[in-house]
Design a protein that fits this description.
The complex is a heterodimer of chains A (about 290) and B (about 350). Chain A is built from eleven helices and two strands, in the order ααααββααααααα. By secondary structure, chain A is mostly helical. Chain A has a two-stranded antiparallel ribbon. Chain A is globular, with a radius of gyration of 19 Å. The N and C termini of chain A lie far apart (about 40 Å). Chain B has about 350 residues and is mainly alpha-helical. Chain B has one domain: ABC transporter involved in vitamin B12 uptake, BtuC (Orthogonal Bundle), CATH 1.10.3470. Chain B is built from 15 helices and five strands. In chain B, the strands form two sheets. Chain B has a three-stranded antiparallel sheet, with helices on one face. A two-stranded antiparallel ribbon of chain B has the order 2-3. Chain B starts with a helix and ends with a strand. The chains are: A mainly alpha (about 290), B mainly alpha (about 350). At the A-B interface, helix 3, helix 4, helix 9 and helix 11 of A face helix 6, helix 12 and helix 14 of B.
Chain lengths: ~290, ~350
Amino acid sequence: MDWINAVLQGVLLGGQYALLACGLSLIFGVMRIVNLAHGVLAVASAYLAYWLVQQTGMPAFLTIVIVIPVLAAVGYAIQRGLFNPALRHGELSPLLVSFGLAVIGANLLQEIFTADSRKISIGTLSTASVELVGLRLGVFSLITLVVAVGVIVGLQLYLSHTRIGRAMRATKDDPEAATLMGIDERHMYALATAIAIGTVALAGVFLGMSTQFSPTYGDLVLIFAFEAVIIGGLGSLWGTLLGGLVLGVAQTVGAQIDPAYGVLAGHLVFLVVLLFRPQGLLPKAVVA
Amino acid sequence: MSPTTTLASQDLASKDLKVVRGGWPSLAGGGVLAAIVVFLAAAPWFVFSPGDVTNLVTLFALIILGTTWNLMAGYGGLVSIGQQAYIGAGGYGVIKLADVVGLPIPVAVVAAGVVCAALAIPTSFLLFRLVGGYFAIGTWVVAEVFKLVTQELPGFGGGSGLSLTAFQGVDRVTRIATVYYLALVLAVLVVLATYVLMRSRVGLGLTAIRDDSVAAASLGVAVRRSQRLVYVAASGGAGLAGALIAVNGLRVSPDSMFSVQYTAFMIFIVVIGGLGTIEGPILGAVIFFALQQLLDSYGTWYLVALGAVAIAVVLLAPRGLWGLAARGRYEVFPVGHTVYPQGSPQGAQSVDFD
């Protein structure tokens, strides 16, 4: 029963990882940029929500109404101001620029909020649970998983059925041809980043409500999100969901063996996937 | 004889052209560098305090880190953000080799570098399945695995780490001098070895990979093999630097030795100095070291500033400060060739070949 419980808890944890990873997957899918500032942006979102709750006393869930638009605007500005110019210098430059951003972000957060750990309080919801055939499932974790699936379904529908989504995929496939069709490539890239960072903001607020975070927590977020993307398969949002779940299960099952082995087990599963199935579990199953 | 020279001397009217590699300006620059090395070798006797000498070891370690990271990223096109795996392995390795195996410190430091290079070979087969940014984060995952495994291994001190005991009973001056000269010699050797490598046939291939890896592959450059070579060499270099940091600081802990902060330092050094040049990382290391000494009291703000400067350099001066200063025309370590029409050796029509 302990093992079934570990797997189930892992699936719930995986919902959080999938939510954190889908922005990374989208930015890579559209622009081939690996955004090393991904984790810092998630943690910055958590801090923004924390600050809003402290300042205004607003309910924690309501902060996403402010945090998501603010971070999406930041994403748009980063793409227009930094990543687009960097793309002109080749593929290494955006990587280096995003690394610079990550260093700036983590140290600014430390300067503003100190290195102390914080958590966004959600009252009794953090301990509320439902019982399912003798297993206790956290209500908040269940909500996170549902939101993760919702975000991924929403992104898929948006990319495949809207005018902007089609333009985005066209830009991804062939930027020059898309430009000839009257699509503004720079704007498309910036919109994609804005949407991606918007999902990061949502994920960051959920992260801040579920766990203790500090300015350097972004490192772990980036690594876990990245592992979810690779395990699932590059360029596939459904793959990212599956990758998040596999990573979550690997960590909780590893921790069941020995509490010290949780994170290590996740890394090892990632390396095993890399060794035997480098294209990931669901490579490019769905266009994204 | 490199293909560039062959092309210039056979296909063009060879009697009208003169192909030069380096020349007196490079010799002069090399002479200045040699003089600086001689000064640094003599300096502990009359200029620096023991504290300065210990600090300078950090500078030499940074030069090794910058030079080898540049070899891998600048020439090989492999942006790793996980070289702290080998910095940590080198640091722990040297302590084990000196304290448990009983090797003399200089031998232990070099052996730690060799161990790290050997560790990099199997790792490369795993990581080379990823390209670009995904390679980058993959290297970081490997570094985390190294760190977590080191914490769990019996006899490695868990989360609190190890102390070096081989220096016990050695007086402070001898200890500091040993580490200082070891670091100076290793830094000079690493830079010279990089220079010799870049002048070789392999180096020519690497320069081509730096400029366009697809075109290089189509011209018969063994891209994968060259990249593996520089990854292994850079990991050995990171191991040497880690070993020096460990014998200089006398203790290691997982969080300090396997810190991603080292990667931030390496990227700043190479990007600010000049990616894809031999001179750039040396200049970058000196600038970074000077800023670190000057701005230490500003705490995290100085890292914020460094991040901003690195972004500005990537966007506005992608060849770094050395690239801005030398404009691709001047090399202290001449790797490229310059072709002059005969009779006007300083003529405006000269053509540069990297």
